[in-house]
Write a structure and sequence with these properties.
The complex is a heterodimer of chains A (about 90) and B (about 290).
Chain A: E1 5-10, E2 15-21, E3 23-28, E4 31-35, E5 42-46, E6 49-55, E7 58-72, E8 75-86
Chain B: H1 4-59, H2 67-70, E1 77-83, H3 93-110, E2 114-120, H4 122-132, E3 136-140, H5 150-165, E4 171-181, E5 184-193, E6 212-214, H6 217-291
Parallel strand pairs in B: 1-2, 1-4, 2-3
Antiparallel strand pairs in B: 4-5
The chains are: A mainly beta (about 90), B alpha/beta (about 290).
Chain lengths: ~90, ~290
């Protein structure tokens, strides 16, 4: 089992989420994608949609509007114009 | 020389002025704290954005580079954005920024450049309209928004982008007060277009892997750059706001101290005068008694 992924979700006014997680699913302009730890570096623009953060058995969902995902060996950063957490059911 | 009653009134009025400046000082201190927190929490985004752009800009070759990054190749038309506060009572805060902007504008005009101005904050409009009324495109008032957020920065960035697209601007410079500390705010110019790539941002270490872009590098940069302008304007506005409250706090602190000095000087004068009057009265009474 690979290590955890260092993920941060940043909106212009504040940092919405930051921490170590197992997996992040995000809506890229050319298709949804999931990122695990040690992903190859890439960068993509995002559509409007939902970002799901999975950590163990917990799962948090954020609605993001416009932005970018940047995957580097250091982790995943999503820069979103707007980001709000969807209340978990 | 004023009568005793007049002096009492004078002291009373200075005291109530002091109460006002003291209250404003405390209000400014509380607002400063909030403005600083806000500026602080906007920082990660701006920092990350700068790093991403630096990373991308390094990979995009000269001819393909978007114009927002590379400029139009000319520097004839200048767009100057001046940000101050909407209110006064903050010492030299507003006039310092306006003076710095005015110096730059005069140099530009002397060098035969076209200058146009966007005013952010009511005080710039008041300060620059008289001299450059014909060059002022638009004024944005900060008090239209309760809290400074993306909604404040967006229309300003949109107007800049619009002017740039229309070919009305080659270089965009922003003047604002950098928040150095609570007691020191420095009027600073910041170049927005062409984008200045932060050379300090450390290159991302890829361990030899190749960066993949979806869609292409150019397309990402194309959408990222206008967004970067928004982010930078937001960051600047927040910092400007913190500077404003810092300056206001300092100015009000000074005013309170001055009022205190004035009160003690006046009180001393008042007491002396009262004493002199009592002495005169006593002498008169004694002289009157002796005469009997």
């Amino acid at each position: 089992m690979a290590g955890k992924l260092n993920f941060s979700l940043v909106a212009p006014e504040r940092e919405v989420f930051s921490g170590l997680v197992d997996q992040v699913d995000a809506p890229g302009v050319e298709g949804d994608f999931g990122v695990l730890a040690d992903h190859a570096p890439f960068m993509t623009a995002l559509r409007e949609g939902q970002v799901t953060v999975i950590n163990g058995s917990s799962r948090r969902t954020f609605t993001v509007k416009g932005g970018f995902a940047d995957v580097t060996p250091a982790g995943l950063t999503i820069l979103a114009e707007e980001a709000t957490e969807v209340a978990t059911a | 020389m004023a009568s005793l009653k007049e002096m009492r009134n004078r002291i009373g009025s200075v005291k109530s002025t002091q109460k006002i400046t003291k209250a404003l000082n405390m209000v400014a201190a509380a607002k400063l704290k909030r403005a600083q927190d806000q500026a602080e929490s906007a920082r990660p985004y701006a920092k990350k954005m700068a790093a991403v752009i630096a990373n991308l800009a390094a990979g995009v070759s000269g001819d393909n580079a978007p114009r927002l990054l590379a400029g139009t190749g000319s520097d004839k038309k200048h767009l100057v954005v001046v940000a101050t506060g909407d209110k006064g009572l903050a010492g030299g805060f507003n006039s310092n920024v306006i003076r710095a902007a005015r110096e730059r504008i005069n140099t530009l005009i002397a060098n035969g450049k076209d200058v146009r101005i966007i005013a952010v904050g009511r005080k710039v409009r008041d300060g620059l309209t008289r001299l450059y009324g014909d060059k002022l495109i638009r004024t944005f008032e900060l008090s239209d928004h309760k809290v400074i957020g993306m909604a404040t920065a967006e229309p300003i960035a949109d107007l800049i982008a619009q002017e740039f697209e229309a070919g009305n601007a080659d270089v965009v410079t922003l003047f604002y007060s950098r928040f150095q500390s609570v007691i020191s705010q420095v009027p600073t110019p910041k170049q927005l277009v062409p984008a200045v790539v932060d050379g300090d941002a450390p290159p991302v270490d890829l361990n030899g892997a190749v960066y993949e872009y979806e869609p292409s590098e150019e397309e990402i940069l194309e959408t990222l750059l206008p967004r970067n302008i928004k982010t930078q304007i937001l960051a600047v506005l927040l910092e400007n706001q913190a500077s404003f409250f810092g300056a206001q706090m300092g100015a009000m602190d000074n005013a309170t101290r001055n009022a205190g000095d004035l009160i003690s000087a006046l009180t001393l004068q008042y007491n002396r005068k009262r004493q002199a009057q009592i002495t005169t009265e006593l002498i008169e009474i004694i002289a009157g008694a002796e005469a009997l």
